[in-house]
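Practice problem. Given the sequence and the SMILES for calcium ion, write out the predicted structure.
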Amino acid sequence: MNRKHPLARKAAALASAACFGLAVTMSVASPAQAASCTLSIGPQENGRYPVYVSCDTAVNGVFGLYGSDAVFDDFRGGPFYSGAQVLRGVLNEDDTIFDRRDEIYAIVDPGNIRTNTVSYNF
Ligand SMILES: [Ca+2]
Ligand SMILES: [Ca+2]
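Answer key:
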C-alpha cells in the first residue's frame, strides 16, 4: 500500500518528467556536434592500397584500421593519416575457406569516430 502523500507522488512524477525532458534535449543536440567520417580504399598499386578518411569537420585526424568480425573486431594497424599506403596484409583480415571477405572500418582521432565499413575481398 502506498502511504506517500499525493503531493510527494506528484513531485516525483514531475522530477522524472524533468529528467526525461533533459535526456530528449541532449539526444537532439548531439547529432549536430557529432562528426561523421568516411573511409574509402583505392585500387591496389604496387602491392599497396591507398586508404583515405575524410570527415565533415575541419579536424581530420589520424586513424586506426579495424576488421569487423562476429566474435571480436581486430586492430589491423595504425595510426595512419589519410592517403596512407597500406600493405594488402593489413586489409586482408579474413582469409579462411569459410570467409575471405574483409570488412574494414576506421576509428578516427580525435573523438573516436567510427567510419563506414568497406567490404571487399582484398
Ligand atoms: Ca571480417
Ligand atoms: Ca580476405
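Check your answer against the key. Residues 39 and 61 are 13 Å apart (CA to CA).
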